[in-house]
Amino acid sequence: MALGISLPPATLQSSKRPATNSDLTQKSDACCHPEHPSGSFARPYFCEVVSLCDLYSVANIVLLPSTGTRSSSARRIDGQFNTSAFSHDPLERLGQAFWDSGIDLSHENSTSDVLLFTVILPRTNGYVNRSDFFHLRLQDVPHPVTKIHEYLAPLQYYESKLSADLPDLVRNAGAIIQWEPLSALVTINQLQDILAQRTEELKYRLTGAHFLSPEPPQRKRIALVRGRPNLTAGRHVYQAAKGLGLDLVIVDDEGHWLQADTAENRQHREAFLATDMTEDEYVADRIASSLRSYPLPIHGIFTLSDNFFVTVARVAEMLGLPANPVSAFETSVDKYRSRLAQNTPGQTARVHSVEELETLLSSVSGDDQQPVFSPVYPVIVKPTKGWSSECVSKVTKPEDLALAVEKATRRHGSAAVIEPFFDGPEMDANFILLDGQVLFSEIADEPPCDADAANATVDATFSPEALTMPSRLPVEEQEIVKSSLRDILVKIGFRTGVFHVEARMVNSAVEYRDVGNGVIDLVPKDTLPTGTPECRLIEINARPPGYRVSVPIKQTYGVDYFAAHMLAAVGERDRLKLVSHSFNFSRADDNSDSKSPAAQYWSRLVYIPAPAAGVVRLKNPDLSPCEELKVRRPDLAKHIVLGVDYCQPGDKVDLFSDGARAYVAHVLVSSRTSREEAIATGNEVHRAFEIDIDVEDQSESTKSPNAKRKCPVEFDSTDCPSANLLDSQMTSLHK
């Protein structure tokens, strides 16, 4: 279909770099100019208005290279081209509308480029649910973006006005996407294809996703107990609260980095309440007292620290705030009690010492003198309270059981739980629940770790090596996982919130094998198992996954677990539903059953372990390890979505912490082509990433040739922590 404007035919010459978070910046008040400079540009232009879905229309505006004379205009509405619809509008009015929206066309690149803007127009009235909504939905859009302009404050009322006047459409935008300029050599057919592709992409990202809430919301205040150890770990929590219009109050120990009343800290929280967080029987009373002393109302409370779940639930109960029952949290943090929700009789036990273990193993009951506890090997031994696979052992023979129990009971002074080892693919399953009903869930596959090997010893670790999204379990097995784990959550008392659950699929129809090129992935078994597929619980975490997993999930699916968790905590039921909508990449011509339509791509999260114990050095003091990798390996850089480096020069790192691997970084890579490409790319990132570790306790003359070790590690310069991540609170950054 011709648009009535001729351009020289040529090959499209446009960068294909996907948008990054640094590109997606909101317009500040300083960008609002009172008056547009007259005569700033003279460009032919046209516009097409497209009904994207029930919730949105978009207006694609194309500004062609400058002619130096009064320009003509044209309009196309849903495929019908109209050469006169906007021909009466002076060009200056459109320029003024862009100027009023913070976009100065007189300074936008060369006048010989083709400029492309997409104006997003909500089709309903309502109140802004999240002010950075379009940034969230347009993460990693596969078309080059200069900037996304968002104009509305959280909870602000928006009135839809689908005007026939183009400048009015610009002024009434919910957001404006400013795409990177196109070469003037682009042909009209190429331009049509570009518009069609980007409109289709927006349809996948925005259909069913609510920018506006129909009911006027109340501005609320939420307390976060334990304010996160540094900005890297907390940034996404603080950003979500700000975008939702939730005022954040931090409750933590004296001296926490957010306590100082600085302009930067005020960007992240409304107030800081210094409170003694010693984990004793009075800690809940002290937290409640601090919140009662605050002069403004508190509407909800939450924590992301496992060892404070029960405490925070008690505080919520004391203050009459929305929360799940204390008993549910008491069960979830005790791995023995949660195991009883799916118990194997006679094969699960809890002991506090090796002596108690020996007594239990020799105990019998009943007239037939059957053993009270008869473990079937292999078994898993782990602390009843703990995280990050610390002190977790796989025991394959009776003589190693006492050693594993001794190791587990050292951690946190905890008892040890002994339970069956369930052989089968391990996965992470995450849920958003409202009144026990699933609003959103997804599953990620965790490939085999050291302890999964058939010949694994008691010293082998269960520390994860990677995570692949979406899951490749058969669809029917994914449904078993979701229904089984949801039922367990409800059974122990959870009703509403975000939950991170780890499990294994027994009698699965798939298994991990080498599929070629070093890629280990799930493939159908040669012989189907005779037993029925069954999902077996490993542990329950009544919170979102740690930030290093929650953020990749947000990138992959468009769902922010931190936002959902906070809305649940303040009782915002309707808004909780609104933030639980994923992307929808269903295509009528897509016959593939391999990737969930909720995901925009295959993604592989790679955990980078410390290669040696020692002191961190940088091979290039001017580049972080991530940036150095991107410079050295641009073929990998184009697949890297995000990454976080945990170390700074001079930091000391260990190989293990309480039996779990110590990590120095994590990296997320993606592929829109295939899962195999995502895994292979992650493997190559792991091999290519370099960090220098000077091995300790060796003189220069006695250091081995491998004393300076290199290992993959990525760094996101926008997320650089002001404090060392490997501090005493690193355990709160668990998976």
Automatic annotation (TrEMBL):
InterPro entries in the cross-refs: ATP-dep_AA_Ligase, ATP-grasp, ATP_grasp_subdomain_1, BL00235/CARNS1_N
SUPFAM superfamilies: Glutathione synthetase ATP-binding domain-like (SSF56059)
Polar residues bias locations: 11-28
Keywords for this protein: ATP-binding, Ligase, Nucleotide-binding
Spans annotated as Disordered: 1-29
UniProt superkingdom: Eukaryota
Keyword ATP-binding set for record: yes
GO molecular function: ATP binding; ligase activity; metal ion binding
UniProt keyword Nucleotide-binding, yes or no: yes
Stretches assigned to the ATP-grasp domain: 338-570
PANTHER family from the UniProt entry: ATP-GRASP ENZYME FSQD, FUMIPYRROLE BIOSYNTHESIS PROTEIN C
Protein name as catalogued: Carnosine synthase 1
